[in-house]
Structure formats: structure tokens, C-alpha cells
Amino acid sequence: TETDTEALRERARACLTTARARTTLLTTCVDEPDLTAQHSPLMSPLVWDLAHIANQEELWLLRAVGGREAMRPGLDSLYDAFEHPRAERPSLPLLPPAEARRYAAEVRVRALDLLASADFHGTRLTEAGFAFGMVAQHEQQHDETMLITHQLRRGPRALTAPDPDPAPPFTGPAEVLVPGGPFTMGTSDEPWALDNERPAHPRRLAPFWIDTVPVTNAAYQAFIEDGGYTTERWWTPEGWAHIRRHGITAPLFWRRDGDRWLRQRFGVTEPVPPDEPVLHVCWYEADAYARWAGRRLPTEAEWEKAARHDPVSGRSRRYPWGDADPAPEHANLGQRHLRPAPAGSYPAGQSPLGVRQLIGDVWEWTASDFLPYPGFRAFPYKEYSEVFFGSAHKVLRGGSFAVDPVACRGTFRNWDYPVRRQIFSGFRTARSEAA
Ligand code: AVJ
Ligand code: FE
Predict the structure, then answer these.
(1) 282-307 per-position pLDDT tens digit
(2) Which of 400, 413, 414, 428 is nearest to 148 (CA)?
(3) Which is it for the CA torsion 338, 340, 341, 346, positive or negative?
(4) Cα 141 to ligand 1 centre (Å)
(5) Does the C-beta of 351 come closer than 6 Å to ligand 1?
(6) 306: which residues sit within 8 A by CB, 6+ positions away?
(7) Rounded to the nearest 10 degrees, what angle do helices 46-57 and 2-28 cross at?
(8) What is the DSSP string of 49-80?
(9) What is the ipTM of this complex?
(10) How big, in percent rounded to 5, are the helix, strand and coil portions of the chain?
(11) Among 50, 79, 247, 354, which is 20 to 30 Å from 21 by CA?
(12) Nearest CA to 29 among 262, 333, 328, 338?
């Protein structure tokens, strides 16, 4: 209806504006040399992300939707993520910070202009404002990427945010039984869901147990202290070879100090907080911990069933708490805190079966490779998802404290190499009921 269209138009405008406020903060809280420097070969200079955000907005909104000409010929190639790997980007003739800001602002003025009159019922790209939602999600995803760059950057603190509320240690049941049987995975009716989340399709799972809360630093420390990193049998052959080759003995950013662990976070060193979900572990570490604990990582389908399945109605919810958009009482999202909340936080955000913190706090590694759902169709470009399908990438679910609600849903799928740990990654474990 017309009201729905106007509500989506307003939502798109609000999401684009929220994203830009975040981008602006992340690119003005450090000096110019820090914007053009490469803080890690794994990451782009911040100024690349800024102009890439604008270039994608120009490509998908101004040109694909609006039919406009390129604003500055030559930019597309500089900011094409596939043409230039991250390590190469600092040596490109990138727009200097002031130019990148001007370009981003010019694109945005025109994009909002276009949004005001765009037909939301025309093509698949404009249906329900999809392209605008996609561009807002893209900017927020790069805002998370830029926050990772900030975490890797050395030097004094540049960003601050209030800490999450303290919470008493979680004393509920350690695990929850998810009944076997069918559930609906993925979505066909979430207007801004990306291609890899589609279509909705039935899955049948055996009953399984899943951790009520993400694995904490205290639990992970027990694995370390029990010789987890020096005991080959907990690791896959690839994982074992990887930690040996790179001398990995603890999560990234952890450092031993006498008999305690310290952690560096956004320019501040602090003791590792025991009740917080563990962060900055790679898939191999998550997998080894689970084996040590006599458990395993949940599959992607198990994670989604735990997060979305309502055993009373049998239907799948948008979020663990229901169909309402995320609010602060549901989950730790949107960089309003720069750390995960203590395990057991956000009871209002728990699933019908009582599983907590599935959304927000830490991305959760799953056992699954990133593969297309039955009936998958690449849209609007095959470089968004399709080129990444296969056994090289593992799926992460649920979103971290660094993810904005617009880029986080019960169906949202993230993926990365199993060695990655600069990302805001943690995990929870599971076991089959029969075991
Ligand atoms: C979905 C987070 C893996 O950062 O590579 C950004 C998102 N795609 N620009 C990535 C993305 C294109 C993507 N991840
Ligand atoms: Fe991108």
C-alpha cells in the first residue's frame, strides 16, 4: 500500500543517515595520516573504505536506479574490491581525505533526492526500496570493517562509548534442547534480505542441545590452561598446522602478564573480563575448543533454528524475540558499546526456548561452509555472494556489537576464512541429543 511504501522510504532515509553518521565518526576521530595509512595488510586504509562506500552508492543508486552518468570517470576501478586486493590499496592513487568526503557528500545529496521520488514497485532492484536498503547495509558493513581497522591500529584511544550494563554471572541452564523436526530456514519476504538469505525453504533437523550463552573468556581460559593450544588431538590437521606456523597460543589481542591475561582493545589495555563472550578467535580455535569441551560447533541450520523457530506456532521469527525490529533491550548492536555485554545479558532478546545473545555481541562461528540455499539466485551482482560459495569460507551468524540493526537479522549470513580472527568473532557450542 501507499502507507507501506512511504514507511519504507522513510526507513531507507533514516538508515542511510544513521550509516553516514557512523562513517563520519569513524573517519574523523583520527588524524589525516591515520586515514591514509595501512594499519594492517589485512585491511584497507580508512580513506579507501570511505570512497568505496560512496562509489557503491553512486553505482547502485545514482546509476543503476537513477540512470545517471558516472560522476568521475576512473573512480570505479580504484574502488572495485575485486580489482585490487586490500594489501595493494595504499599504493593506488586514492582520493585524499577531503576529496573522498566531498565525493561521498555529493553522491549522498543526489541519492536522497532520488529516494524522495523513486518508484518502489518498478524493477526488482527498486521493489520495496531494496537498492536503498542494500546500500545502507553495505555502508554499515564497511563501518564494521573500519572498526576492525581501528582495533588493529596502534596508538592512543580514538573512539569511546559507554560500557554495557554489568550483569550478575549467568546462572540459568548451560544448554537448551531444540526439538527435532522441520523448520523454515531463510526468507522470501524480508524486503531488504540479501540474495544469500533467500529463498525460504524447509529443513529437517535431528534434536540437538545448544549453549544458552556464548562461550565466555573464563571458559576459554580453562581451555588454554588445560593445554588446549599444545594438544594436537583437539585440532583439525589444518588448524593444528596453522597455529603452529603462526605461534598462536591465545585469542588475538591477548597478552600474558604474570598469572593473568591482558587484552588490548581500541588503544586501552585491560584485564580480560571473565564473564564476557570470547572475541577474536578464528574458526580453528572455536572448533578445537568445542572438541575439548566434548561438544561441537552448531551447524548453520541449527543456529538458525535455535534463533528463529517458535515451537508453539511452528513458524520462523525474524529475530529470536519475535518480529519487532531490534531495540536496545534486545541486543548489543550498532557500536553503541565497543565491546560485547556479559554472557546472560538481554533476557528480553532471548529465543522462545531461552537461548540468549544470538543477535549482537559477537559473530558466532558455525560448523558450516558458505553455500547457496536451494533455489538461490544471484542478485543484484554475483560478486556479492555467489563468488564466495564453496568450502573456503565458514559461515558466521548473529552479528556483533559492531553491526547495525539494518545489517542484522535471524536470516543474515556472514562468511570468512577459517583463519580470520581480527573480526569480532566468538562462538557457542552444541551437541547432538543422542550423543
Ligand atoms: C559479508 C562482511 C563478508 O566485507 O567482504 C562489503 C560485505 N560486501 N562489500 C565483506 C561486503 C561488499 C562482506 N561480508
Ligand atoms: Fe564493499
Answers:
(1) 999 999 999 999 999 999 999 999 99
(2) 400
(3) positive
(4) 6
(5) no
(6) 176, 178, 210, 298, 351, 353, 355, 358
(7) 160
(8) HHHHHHHHHIIIIIIIIT-PPPSSTTHHHHT-
(9) 0.98
(10) 40, 15, 45
(11) 79
(12) 338
Q: Does the Cβ of 385 fall within 6 Å of ligand 1?
A: no
Q: How far is the CA of 53 from the centre of ligand 2 (A)?
A: 7
SS3 assignment, position 267: coil
pLDDT in tens, 42-65: 999 999 999 999 999 999 999 999
Ligand 1 binding pocket includes 357 (Cβ within 6 Å): no
DSSP string, 118-169: --TTSSTTTGGGHHHHHHHHHHHHHHHHHHHHHHH--SS-----PPPPP-PP
Which residue is it, cell 561452509? Answer: 369
- Cell numbers placing 222: 580453562
CA 54 – CA 264 distance, rounded (Å) = 32
pLDDT for 339-356, tens place per residue?
999 999 999 999 999 999
What's the rounded Cα separation, in Å, for the pair 354 and 360?
A: 16
Q: CA–CA distance from 388 to each of 3, 36, 218, 372, 382 (Å)?
A: 38, 28, 34, 10, 9
Query: C-alpha grid cell for residue 214?
Result: 556464548
Give the separation between CA 400 and CA 252, rounded to whole angstroms: 16
CB 373 within 8 A of CB 198: yes
Q: Does any ligand 1 atom lie closer than 6 A to the CB of residue 400? A: no
Count of CB atoms situated within 10 Å of the CB of 6? 11
- 21 Cβ contact list (under 8 Å, min separation 6): none
pTM: 0.98
C-beta of 370 in contact with ligand 1 (< 6 A): no
Instruction: Give the model's pLDDT for residue 296.
Output: 98
* Binding site residue list for gamma-L-glutamyl-L-cysteine: 86-89, 416, 420
Nearest ligand to the CA atom of 417: 1
C-alpha to C-alpha distance for 406 and 333, rounded to whole angstroms: 10
414 lines ligand 1 (CB under 6 A): yes
Which ligand is located closest to the Cα atom of residue 137? Answer: 1
